[in-house]
Amino acid sequence: MFLRNIASQNLPTRSLSFIGNVQQYRQISRNSVGSWSSSEVPTFSPKKALVLTKLSRYEFEKLRHKNVSEAQLEDILRKRGSDYNMLLYHHTLHKNCEAMVKNILEEKNIETKVVTRFDYNEGNINWADVIFTAGGDGTFLLGASKIHDPTKTIIGFNSDPTRSEGYLCLPKKYSNNIKNAIDKLLQGKFRWLFRRRIRVTLIGDKIYDVPVELHDQQLNQLENRFLEINEDRDETPKLEESVKNKRIIPVKALNEVFIGEALSARVSYYELAVDGSERTKVKSSGLCVSTGTGSTSWTFNINKLPHQSVSDLMKLIQEETRLPIDYKDQRLIDRITAKFNDNLIFGPEVSLMGYTIRDSLSDGTLPVPGERKPRGFAKQLNIRSRCFDASLVIDGGLSYSFNDGTVAILDIVDEDALRTIVLNEP
Fold first, then answer.
1. Where located (predicted)?
2. Rounded Cα distance, 114 and 129, in Å
3. Reduced to 3 states, what is the DSSP secondary structure of residue 308?
4. What contacts 411, CB < 8 A, 6 or more positions away?
C-alpha cells in the first residue's frame, strides 16, 4: 500500500508538498495501486444491475411546478429567460441514454432496474450486483455516496456529453457506443480502479443532528439523496456518553470535504493538526481536503495559477535577479503555468489527502516563522472548530454543523475505497 511505500523510503509525509516533491511523489504513487488491484483478475458477470438515473433539468422544473400544464410551464420558463426547447432536447438525450443502458443490459440477460435518487436506497443497492449511473459526475457522486461494500462496482455513463465532461464516468465516446463498453466489461477488457475516499469522524455535542441536504434547498422538498432519514427514528444511539459523543459519518467523501463558516464573508477560525502534529491555530476562508479523485476538481481550482499571475511573477523575478527571462514569451508562460497546475493533481488510488488552507490570514504582511504551509499532503487531519456558524460539507452536497468545540478527524482507510473500472484502450 502507498503508506507502506512511503515508510520504506523514509519519507515523512508532513514534508510532502504539492510542488517541491512532485517527482519523488509521482514515483511513489506509480506503485500505490492498493492491495486489491494488484492481485485481482478482472471479471465481470453480474446477474442484476441497478441503473441510477439523474433528475434532468426539465424533470426538476416539472417537480417545482407540479400543478401547471405544459404550456404554462413553457411560459414560466420563457419569462425567466430559460430555453424550454433546449431543456426538452437535453432531457430527451438523457432519457435515450438511460433507455439504451437498460436495453443493452437486458439483451445480455442481466436483470435491470432503473431508479431515480428518490428510490436509490439500501434495499435496491443490496439487490444489485453492479451499479450503473446515467447522468454526469453529480449522479456518480450520488451513486457512490451510499455504497459501503468494497466489492460493489459502480460504473458511470455520461448521458449528455455535450454539456459536461463527466470526469468520473467512462470516456465520452462510450456515451454513443454503450454496447461496446458493456461488451468490453463482459469480456474482461478492463482493470479495477479503487478510488480512495475520506472517512470523517465527528467528536462533540450535536453530532447526531440531521445534516442539511443542500440540494433540498433548490427543490424545496425532502430529497435526502445521501441519507435515508426517518423522521420517526431517533438517530442518537443509547450509548455511554464517551461513545455517544463520537460518530463516524456514514457517507464517505469521494471528491472533497470542505470546512468553513456558512457565511462566506466571515473568517473561519479552527485548529489544525497534521499527522499527529501539534495543533496550529488557523484563520482562513475555510479548509478544503481532497482525495486524488477530487484533486482535479474544486481543490484544483482553488490552487491553480492563471497565466497572468505566472507572467507577473516572471517579470518580478527578472527585475530582481536581472536574469535573461523573457516574461513576455507566451509559450514559456504556457509551459510554466501548465507544469505548476499539473503538479496539483495526484492519483485517485493514492492513500493520502491533499489539504488546502483557503485564503490563509496572518496578523502581519509577512508569514510568521514556523507558520503552517497553506497546502500539503496528510494521512490524517484533526480539526477543532472555533467557528460561530460553520459547516462540514461532503462532496458539495451534505452539510453537517461544525461549531465551536466540535472535532473532525479525517482519514483515508483502504477498506473504504470505491470499486470502479477503467476500460482497456487499443
1. Mitochondrion
2. 14
3. helix
4. 198, 199, 201, 379, 380
| Per-residue cell: 169 | 464516468
Residue 387 has which C-alpha cell? 467557528
> Which residue from 277, 290, 259, 285 is spatially nearest to 399, judged by alpha carbons?
259
Contacts of 55 (CB under 8 A, 6+ apart): 63, 116, 117
Helix axes 84-107, 57-64, angle to 10 degrees: 120
Residue pair 97/177 in contact (Cβ under 8 Å)? The answer is: no
Q: Give the SS3 label for residue 357.
A: strand
Give the contacts of 309 (CB within 8 A, at least 6 positions apart).
Answer: none
**Type of residue numbered 382:** N
pTM, to two decimals: 0.83
Q: What DSSP string describes 141-183?
A: HHHHHT---TT-EEEEEES-TTT---TTSS-GGGGS-HHHHHH
Distances in Å between the Cα of 202 and the Cα atoms of 118, 155, 165, 249 are: 27, 30, 34, 7
Cβ–Cβ under 8 Å, residues 36 and 150: yes
3-state secondary structure of 272: strand
* Cell representation of residue 299: 481543490
User: According to DSSP H, which parts of 260-371 are helical?
Assistant: 298-303, 307-321, 330-342
Q: Are strands 353-357 and 280-284 parallel, antiparallel or unpaired?
A: unpaired
Give the DSSP H or E segment for 181.
helix 178-186
Residue 165: predicted pLDDT: 84
Phi and psi at residue 47, to the nearest 5°: -100, -30
| Residue 37 host element (H or E) | helix 34-37
Residues pairing with 392 in the sheet: 259, 400
Cβ atoms 335, 9 nearer than 8 A: no
Reported as a single tens digit per residue, the pLDDT across 181-204 is 999 999 999 999 999 999 999 999
What cell numbers appear for 311 in the block?
507572467
The helices-and-strands tally (H runs, E runs) of the chain is 14, 19
Res 346 pLDDT > 90:
yes
CA–CA distance, 261 with 28 (Å, rounded to integer): 36
* pLDDT greater than 70 at residue 229: no
Q: Give the three cell numbers for residue 175.
A: 456515451
CA 77, CA 62: separation in Å to the nearest integer?
Answer: 11
pLDDT over 50 (residue 255): yes
pLDDT in tens, 272-288: 999 999 999 999 999 99
Sort residue 102 into left (φ over 0), alpha (ψ -120 to 50) or beta.
Answer: alpha
